[in-house]
Amino acid sequence: MKVHTVTGGAGLRLHVREWGKEDAPSILFIHGWSQNHLCWKNQYESMLAEDFRLVALDLRGHGMSEAPLETEYYTEPQLWADDIAAVVDQLNLGSPVFVGWSYAGFIICDYLRAHGTAKVAGINFVGAATTLNNAGFGTLIGPGFLDHVIGATSEDLPGNIEAIRNFVRGCTYSQLPSEVFETAICWNMAVPAKIRAALLAREIDSDDVLTALAVPVLVTHGQEDTVILPAMGRHLLALCPEATASWYAATGHAPFLENPTRFNDELCRFADDAMVSRKGISSRLEGSTLAGTSPPYNRT
Q1: Largest CB tally within 10 Å, which of 75, 149, 201, 217?
Q2: Which residues form the signal peptide (predicted)?
Q3: What is the reported pTM?
Q4: What whole-number distance in Å separates Cα of residue 299 and Cα of residue 193?
């Protein structure tokens, strides 16, 4: 594992870690609202590291990245776009596959609007949100988020803790192992409530970006997701008619935590195909350490 400090938008310092082979194709993991790179532990400690260069950042305001409290650091799309561009460019990732969970759907679309797809091999949207407005509350964004957002953005510490505990519990359909659940609460609580609130202080409509996408797209979504509703995944698929869907039964908002074996295998296959499509190289899938174990993707 290597640790990097990357200079992002407006000079803000970003904490970035990487695993795997430095000369292998890159996968860039982008976490969600109030999370950090630790949520991808089941990916960077898996056999994916034998085939890919795995990179995960702490978004601005999260984890070990710089976290100014002023709202303006989180409401400007260009800053988010430049953060991702900085990671790609300063670490020489080439054309990585982006894996974006939840709020990261907004950030990936910020990047695409500002920088295009010239340095993107493919995108795996994982329980991803791409629309943030009043009309989407209750139709695209569900009670697993809405029921806890007031407490999670409050400065009252007891209420804040209770809201985060309930939010983390609601992110999965099945109960997480106690150690994983406790650690997830810790990394969520590392984000100040003011920053959680600032992340929600803008309206977002990414439909134009998604309609124009011309890179491979995989939409991974739990059928029991109450945080970002399956309707959001269907909306994304309708806008990206060439996208592939992977629906996870009996799974909530975090397929990569709830079913990491399937998730990692599907990501390996998708990334391999995206790299082949991008570079025109021979497929490396034959002989891969993760090949041949998952059910096929489906669009139902």
Answers
A1: 217
A2: none
A3: 0.93
A4: 37
